[in-house]
Amino acid sequence: MKVNNLNRDIVVIADDFTGANDAGVSLALSGKKVSVAFKTPFTDDTDALVINSDSRAMKASEAAEKLAQYAADVHAAHWLIKKIDSTLRGNPGAEIEALLALSGKRQAIIAPAFPAAGRTTENGVCLVKGVPVTDTEFASDPKTPVRHAQIAAVLAEQTALTSVVITPEQLAAALESDARLVIVDARSDDDLDRIIAAAFARDERPLLVGSAGLCDALARRLATPRQLLAVIGSMSEIAQQQIQRVRGQDNVSTVLIDINDVFNAAMDGYQQQIAAALAAGQHCVVHTCADTHARHQIDALCEQRGLSRAALGETISAFLGELTRNALETSRPAALYVSGGDVAMAVASTLNAQGFAITGQVAQCVPFGRFLGCRWQGPVMTKAGGFGTETTLLEVLHFIEEKMSD
């Protein structure tokens, strides 16, 4: 039986199902694996867990009690978000206080604005297309009518925690104050992005409280770049042509492995190069053959090292397998491309993969899928060393940039 997946990147507590989906969709589009749970414990692996408490129409005390059920998930979150309605319906005060108590967090940043849907906040007032929410249909909602346009007044009905109303520019200073509830105005997505940036600057992560607009801003901040880590152990002529074809691209970095370093187990420098390339938003191509001339020096290298061609290949493949595993532990490329059968198997072995699930084909002779039974579950593309055309690797890069971002 599986147990809860501890240390999830994000846990969102929403008070209704559609709101839960609204909170999760942008995170999914940013590259996160997102699941919406109706009940807990939720044991499937997921980057972002969105829990629907279905508590919007409950009494405030009942809503707070319902959230106490999620204590284990709250404690496991790197980022904890209370998703609230952008028009302040429901039990925001009671649920925020409950989550602060459960999580042990000192402060909550509260920004219910959703500018893309016409919901903004100015001077602590919730506006719908520029009109105070109490002058709109939401004031007469049949289940959860809104009685106040002032966010602080809504919260004060259900909690005695101190609050302050500020602008995004004042947020950094407010997070140093004693205010438990920091209500932040936002009239644009840029304002929400500044709010998230201020939260990231804190050593102690605050509770984030907002609508889908704030979740979208977090997703933008956490978006996974669409980068490929390509590990090419093949010395075939076509493999070298494929590398040369992408080398001139502005968004491609290449890392050439010196064979002498393979025998010296000198791996740290290459790991740093790979991490730096991916962190800079570059595709990273790791290869072991500088040019055609190097390919014809294999016999001399074997004689120098006292190895057969097979033994030399095994040594290089093992090095590349370990290097790839280490790179995947420290960076998060969108996908992995492995060229050369021995290298592909070495990578699978170091990742402790139990098999390979084929999903489809990216380009001619480039099947893709996922390794089975191992921790790294990103897409994997494989290619036999001598297969393909000069543009094969370029086609793979285009697939990563275009198809995987759809």
Describe the global form. elongated
Label the CATH architecture of the largest domain.
3-Layer(aba) Sandwich
* Strand content range: 15-25%
The biggest sheet amounts to: 8 strands, parallel
Roughly how many Å is the radius of gyration?
26 Å
The helix content, as a percent range, equals 25-40%
Determine the N-to-C terminus distance: 35 Å
Contiguous low-pLDDT stretches (5 residues minimum) are 1-6
Number of domains: 2
Spatial sequence of strands, sheet with the most strands: 2-3-1-4-11-5-10-9
CATH class of the largest domain: Alpha Beta
The named CATH superfamily of the largest domain: Putative sugar-binding, N-terminal domain
Q: Give the strand tally.
A: 18
Q: Kindly name the structural category.
A: alpha/beta
Instruction: Assign the CATH topology of the largest domain.
Output: Rossmann fold
H/I helix tally: 16
Give the integer mean of the pLDDT values: 91
Protein name: Four-carbon acid sugar kinase family protein
Pfam families: NBD_C, SBD_N
Keywords: ATP-binding, Carbohydrate metabolism, Kinase, Nucleotide-binding, Transferase
Domain Four-carbon acid sugar kinase nucleotide binding: 229-393
